[in-house]
Each structure stands twice: as structure tokens, then as C-alpha cells.
Design goal:
The chain has two helices and ten strands, in the order ββββββββββαα. The chain has 148 residues and is mainly beta. The strands form three sheets. Strands 4-3-6-7 form a four-stranded antiparallel β-sheet, with no helix packed on it. It has a three-stranded antiparallel β-sheet with strand order 1-2-5, with no helix packed on it. The N and C termini lie far apart (39 Å).
Length: 148
């Protein structure tokens, strides 16, 4: 595997065509001491989850997060009708939408975005996970919560 001559782990993206799941895994040489969330992992492979703390040897921690910021995108369309999570009106391909960035939603719920009178995303919290749109331009979770 390229990069394994180095004494540093590397991130590897993956996509499971069967389940549709995608994510990131940390891969390292088995002789390295790698701790994730305080536990040593000796297998040399770990699929990362939101808020994982990663320590290599006695080094400082780094954190992995799946959090994304809300972004207006054109609705990609689907093979079957998809409806706005809030107003339940059909979403059309190319229509401006926001995909909920909430960690419990997994990005699978869409809202109308800034279109005339229908700004369903900013109307209130996500109806599925409770994510609160704040008009933010920074992330809601920071590792300081872990050490507070």
C-alpha cells in the first residue's frame, strides 16, 4: 500500500455500493501505537465516527468530525418523488434545497431553500433530528466540549 513505509497513519475513503454508506477509515502500520477515544487499536484499521479522538503515540490528539455546514444546492433529483421535510411539497430537480447537515439525519432529508415564500430550512429546527439552523458560518461541535 502506498505510504506504508512512513510512520504515519493515512485516511482512506470508502463507499459501499451495496448499502450506499460512505465514510473514512484510518489505516496504519500495526507496529504504531494508535489510540482512538482512549483505546489502543492494534489491527491497523478503524472506520472513523463523528467526534473520534485520535492519538498517535504520545502525540497531541486530533479529532474527526462528520459535521458539515448547511449549503444551498440544486436538488439532484431521484428515481421517485422526494418531498420537502417541512412543507411536504414535491422537490423538483434543479430546485434550490438545503440537505440537513445534522449528524443524526445523515444528510438524507431536504428542505426548500430561499425560494420565494418557502424558506423551509430556516423556518425552524429540523423535524427529524432537531438540528437548529442558526445562519452559522462555523461548526456547532468543537473538541473543546470534550475537555470542558
Amino acid at each position: 500500500m502506498p505510504g506504508f513505509h512512513l510512520n504515519i497513519p493515512r485516511l482512506q475513503s470508502f463507499h459501499d455500493a451495496f448499502t450506499g454508506l460512505a465514510g473514512w477509515a484510518l489505516v496504519w502500520r500495526r507496529d504504531l501505537v494508535v489510540r482512538i477515544n482512549g483505546r489502543r487499536h492494534g489491527l491497523g484499521l478503524r472506520v472513523l465516527r463523528h467526534r473520534d479522538e485520535i492519538r498517535i503515540g504520545d502525540g497531541d490528539p486530533v479529532f474527526y468530525s462528520t459535521e458539515t455546514l448547511p449549503v444551498v444546492i440544486p436538488f439532484p433529483g431521484a428515481g421517485e418523488p422526494v418531498f420537502c421535510t417541512r412543507c411536504q411539497l414535491a422537490l423538483e430537480p434543479g430546485q434550490p434545497v438545503v440537505r440537513c447537515p445534522g449528524e443524526r439525519c445523515g444528510g438524507g432529508y431536504y428542505y426548500h431553500a430561499q425560494e420565494g415564500q418557502r424558506d423551509c430550512f430556516n423556518y425552524g429546527p429540523c423535524l427529524v433530528c432537531g438540528y437548529e439552523p442558526t445562519g452559522q458560518t462555523t461548526f456547532q461541535w468543537t473538541p473543546t466540549e470534550v475537555y470542558a
